[in-house]
Description:
By secondary structure, the chain is an alpha/beta fold. The chain folds into two domains: 4-99 and 138-238, Ribonuclease Z/Hydroxyacylglutathione hydrolase-like (Metallo-beta-lactamase, Chain A, 4-Layer Sandwich); 103-134 and 247-317, no CATH class. Helix content is 34%, strand content 18%. The protein has helices at 4-7, 42-54, 94-98, 103-117, 122-125, 131-134, 210-221, 240-264, 269-276, 285-301, and strands spanning 8-13, 22-27, 33-35, 64-66, 86-89, 145-146, 152-153, 156-163, 172-176, 181-185, 228-231, 306-310, 313-317. The strands form three sheets. A six-stranded mixed β-sheet has the order 1-2-3-4-5-6. The longest helix has 25 residues, at 240-264.
Amino acid sequence: MKTLEDTVCTITVPTPYAVGDVHLYILKGNKTTLIDAGVRTEEAWTAFVRQLSEYGMKPEDIQQVILTHHHPDHIGLVEFLPNVNLVAAHKESLPWLTRDGSFVSTYLSFFRDFYTRNGVPEKLVGRLDHFHEKLNDFPYIEVSDTLEEGDLLPNHPEWSVIETPGHAQGHLSFFRKEDGTFIGGDHLLEHISPNPIIEPPFTASERAKPMLQYRSSLEKLKTIDIRRVLPGHGKVFHNAGEVIDKRLRQQEDRAEKVHRIVRTNSEDAFTISRVLFPNQYEKQYALTMSETMGQLDYLRKKSKVEMKVIEGREIYYVN
């Protein structure tokens, strides 16, 4: 049996984001395939080309790109690769990658309503006016193949697809059963817990509940014999079961903190986020609101809190 090192090459490129460096993986086989594509910067491209050359490869050798999810630190260099004839992703990633004419209006309409109903001040809601600037980090990508649970990676049948929504609606992970190797994108990281991010319901009638999806995706992995995790960020690790249990406990602990807040005072989600994240709630309100809403979704599922609408605002309370 070929070893991991014989068939998978790791490339690490810098990002301008707080998360730091991101890992990309080259799968060798019938086709040379890149798993994730870093961020669209000259610094990332230079690092990518240099590390490719250390493996005896060049950008022209890459024939396929497969994306774990649509976030800009995982897709940026696709358009730099001249000979790619297949790009694959989950169907839920398509709105972000292809961005049809309704993408921006759908995004803005959803979040203006979502933030307003959940108590976000207008001065923060107004930052949505700069959303077009954020899109500069997202290249347009023509996706030629979609992947879902149980599929095999094109030209790499030893790798199976596992849907792991939560951090992103279209998040995918890849598993090689013969040696227990798991390429997990941002779903399973050793050093931090990924933020389950609220997204507009581009393909549904109402928003998904990413924290509940994230927990379900973690629980699903406990049934798989994962022996080595190749993550999107941080170090390779082997104790997947321990990390999964830790992430589930951490989420439950934070949910209990939210429960105590609501038990003391009925509040909207933004007010709760100010208590949870006193130093980040304004600067990073999109992430802190996603986290807070995730805990509230979890508590509502557990019937520990309820919600009522008062003068257009969603208020959470304990009976």
